[in-house]
Amino acid sequence: MQPTSPSLELQLADEQATAALAGAIAPHLRSGFVVYLSGDLGAGKTTFTRSLLRALGHTGRVQSPTFTLVQSYNLSSFDLYHFDFYRFSSPDEWREAGFDEHVGGDAAAVVEWPELGAGSLPEPDIWLRLEPGTEDDPDVRVARLSAGTDWGRQCLIAISDGVGLGLLAGVSLARQLPQQPSP
Ligand SMILES: Nc1ncnc2c1ncn2[C@@H]1O[C@H](COP(=O)(O)OP(=O)(O)O)[C@@H](O)[C@H]1O
Ligand SMILES: [Mg+2]
Question: 20 to 30 Å CA-CA from 46: which of 3, 26, 37, 66?
Answer without folding.
Answer: 3
